[in-house]
Design brief:
Structural class: alpha/beta
CATH architecture: Alpha-Beta Barrel
Strand content: 5-15%
Radius of gyration: 20 Å
Helix content: 40-55%
Shape: globular
Bound molecules: zinc ion
CATH topology: TIM Barrel
Number of strands: 8
CATH class: Alpha Beta
Number of helices: 16
CATH superfamily: Metal-dependent hydrolases
Largest sheet: 8 strands, parallel
Strand order of the largest sheet: 1-2-3-4-5-6-7-8
Length: 403
């Protein structure tokens, strides 16, 4: 029942607040770099890789995550990282996206001769180069392209994840797995704050990614406190595979400004804590708190459909309930390659399957800009957001979607 044309959706200024660098490469780049580096792939053709690795449907979250073992292997030096970041900006800008927050887990890439600082610098270089090229060609009424970087710690990791984790696990062999996860996370957030303070790399946020079930956010309380105390914005992958309690922990233990996915926010069957007697009240209170504090949910429709077997119909996705409850949401891709999607595609899916009128779409888009972790002062952010809103309204008028 969508009445928004594809051209309109492409023309409006958009954001992607939740996009993983290592899940959003061009397939052609993956093949080219793997060939160059002599890294083995299950197939060296795009069709072949689409059949066996980057599929339409996945058996499980683990099946979905398999592709990352190939992408992270080729992202093992400065040139590759810079190239992947550079291309990501153009892929976004070419579909009308004006602002992205790119996230990735540096500890998956650290190896001998490729340090945390070098990784962050190369990603920032790639993003910045593309940003500057694009902005030098824009009309004065158009909002600039801009970006921020979100650093991810892993909810779960082991010695096979990367050279860094192998060494880390060896050095901390007398610690339990939980202690190792905590330590790695804390080390990362300290490195992140130091680098942000001594460079102009556009680091804006901290996140935890990876397997949720059995690896609670509470393992990362110390690192989120550290981020919080150092004015780093916080987002948490939560409620993707686990329920409302995980979202509750993200907010109360990790000071989350935004939530990644939040898919099972309303699912009382996924509440396991026996102390929560009135599950409906718990969900109601949590929902009201999130809505009132404008904690924004980064909704990733395609990705959720692909990794959640019980979610067979998009109309059953909790986005409908989020909108009914006036929660601030932003539509995001999660992984452009692994989910084979784009920002335009996510918006089209949302407007085709949920009751979203002109005003609501405008709100959703504007919230992407407003709730971004914009690098720069608040006054600069306000000016930028204003320009994006004015531009949106201008496009709206042009296409006769006046609100
Ligand atoms: Zn994600």
């Amino acid at each position: 029942m969508s009445h928004f044309s594809d051209e309109f959706i492409k023309a409006i200024p958009k954001t992607d607040l939740h996009v993983h660098l290592d899940g959003s490469l061009r397939l052609s780049t993956l093949i080219e770099l793997a060939t160059l580096k002599g890294i083995d792939l299950p197939s060296f053709s795009e069709d072949g890789l689409r059949k066996v690795v980057f599929k339409d449907k996945y058996d499980s979250l683990n099946d979905y995550l398999k592709g990352f073992s190939y992408t992270t292997q080729i992202m093992n030096d400065a040139l590759s990282m810079e190239r992947v970041a550079y291309e990501l900006v153009y892929d976004n800008f070419n579909e009308g996206v004006r602002y992205i927050e790119v996230r990735f887990a540096p500890q998956l890439h650290i190896r001998k001769g490729f340090s945390f600082e070098e990784i962050m610098t190369s990603v920032d270089n790639g993003l910045r180069k593309a940003q500057n090229e694009i902005n030098s060609h824009l009309n004065s009424d158009e909002p600039n392209f801009s970006y921020g970087i979100i650093v991810c710690a892993m909810r779960f990791c082991n010695e096979y994840f990367s050279e860094y984790y192998r060494d880390f696990f060896e050095i901390h062999k007398y610690s339990t797995i939980e202690e190792k996860i905590k330590l790695a996370s804390l080390e990362l957030v300290k490195a992140t704050v130091q680098l942000r303070d001594k460079t102009d790399i556009k680091i804006v946020g901290f996140d935890i990614a990876g397997s949720e079930y059995g690896y609670p956010a509470s393992n990362h309380t110390d690192s989120y406190n550290f981020a919080h105390n150092n004015f780093i914005h916080k987002t948490v992958h939560a409620g993707e595979a686990y329920g409302p309690e995980s979202i509750f922990l993200a907010i109360t233990k990790c000071h989350a400004d935004r939530i990644g996915h939040g898919l099972f926010l309303f699912d009382e069957n996924k509440i396991y804590d026996e102390n929560i007697k009135d599950k409906q009240k718990y969900i109601r209170d949590l929902t009201n708190y999130i809505a009132d504090r404008r904690i924004t949910i980064e909704v990733c429709l395609t990705s959720n459909l692909q990794t959640t077997p019980e979610l067979t119909d998009i109309k059953q996705h909790s986005l409908g309930k989020m909108l009914q409850n006036n929660i601030s949401i932003s539509l995001c891709t999660d992984n452009r390659l692994v989910s084979d999607t784009t920002v335009c595609n996510e918006i089209k899916l949302a407007v085709a399957n949920f009751n979203i009128n002109n005003d609501m779409l405008r709100n959703i888009i504007v919230y992407g800009f407003k709730r971004s972790f914009y690098y720069g002062s608040y006054s600069e952010k306000r000016k930028y957001v204003r320009k994006c809103i004015d531009y949106y309204d201008k496009i709206s008028k042009l296409y006769n979607y006046n609100t």
